[in-house]
Each structure stands twice: as structure tokens, then as C-alpha cells.
Design goal:
The chain has 175 residues and is α/β, with parallel strands linked by helices. 39% of the residues lie in helices and 22% in strands. The chain has a 7-stranded mixed sheet with strand order 2-1-5-4-3-6-7. It is elongated, with a radius of gyration of 20 Å. The N and C termini lie far apart (73 Å).
């Protein structure tokens, strides 16, 4: 085989690999029929709290819920945690609950983080990442804004700030 033929073969193989990659990404992120989506009910779950008993999502019906998936090692998570805490402080008396779902870490790792950032909203421990899998979480932070009736109103992948949170809360706070 001469050089130009080998070049064409390489380009064809790379093209096929690129098509396969795009298809795999599309299938896993876009076409997953079980993925949690805006307009659908948030799947119920129950997890142990860092400093308390188990908490079930269904126990919070009637409240607006901000469900935030995070890790202590995640830099954007560290940056958004004060904004989540601030909005929780402002709106908890108006029916807002912020739930921080820590992914796969032990209380020994989570406790110092929570203290460092002055977090006093419920922190749930997803030690085996079962809820992370149920919600199909990829990059973190990922945050779900859930209305009092349990419907997912917004999903944000990436770091939030106070203005973004405030904007989305208007869709989920009890009337």
C-alpha cells in the first residue's frame, strides 16, 4: 500500500471512530428514556444525612427543593456552596429546602468541608453513588430545581451563583 492509500485508510478509521463517539455520547445523554428530565417528576430516594436520620425526597412534597450533587474535591462545587447557603438562609422560611448530595465520600471527608463553608442545609451521603446513578449525574456540580408537587423545573450542570439560583427559585417556591 502506498502512502496516499494509508492516509485515506487512517482518515476513514478516524472518521468511523468519531461517528461512534458522537453516537455513544448522543445515546447516553440525549436519548436515555430513564434520564431525569425537566417536566417529569423527580425520582424519590432516601439517603442518610451527615448529621441526622435518613431523609426521603418524598418527605419534602409541598416545598421547593434545590437538589445539588457535589464532591469535596470539586472546585466549582466549592465556589457555589456559599451561594447555595445564602439562598437557603433567605428562603428557608418561605418553603425552600436545599439538599446537598455528596457523591461517594465518607463523613470524615465531608464534615470538614461542611464546617469550612458554614453549610447548615441537609447534606445527604450517597456513599455507593446509587442516587447519582439514578439521576444520571455526569459532571458536577449538577443541580435540580424541584417544584412543591415533585416536578423537575430546571436542571443546571455547572457552577451556580446567587443570581442564577434566585432566578430559578421563582419557579419552585410554594405560592
Amino acid at each position: 500500500m502506498n502512502k496516499s492509500n494509508r492516509t485515506y485508510v487512517r482518515i476513514a478509521v478516524l472518521g468511523l471512530l468519531l461517528v461512534a463517539l458522537v453516537f455513544a455520547l448522543y445515546s447516553s445523554f440525549v436519548k436515555d428514556p430513564n434520564a431525569v428530565k425537566v417536566g417529569r417528576d423527580a425520582p424519590n430516594f432516601s439517603l442518610e444525612q451527615l448529621n441526622g436520620p435518613e431523609l426521603a425526597l418524598d418527605d419534602l412534597k409541598g416545598k421547593g427543593v434545590v437538589l445539588n450533587f457535589w464532591g469535596t474535591w470539586c472546585e466549582p462545587c466549592k465556589k457555589e456552596m456559599p451561594a447555595l447557603q445564602e439562598q437557603y438562609n433567605k428562603f428557608k422560611d418561605k418553603g425552600l429546602v436545599v439538599l446537598g448530595v455528596n457523591i461517594g465520600e465518607s463523613p470524615v471527608a465531608v464534615e470538614p468541608f461542611v464546617k469550612q463553608f458554614g453549610v447548615d442545609f441537609p447534606i445527604l451521603l450517597d456513599r455507593q453513588s446509587q442516587i447519582t446513578k439514578l439521576y444520571r449525574i455526569g459532571p458536577i456540580p449538577t443541580t435540580f430545581f424541584i417544584a412543591p408537587d415533585g416536578e423537575v423545573k430546571e436542571i443546571v450542570i455547572g457552577q451556580l451563583n446567587e443570581a442564577m439560583i434566585t432566578d430559578k427559585l421563582s419557579k419552585i417556591l410554594p405560592k
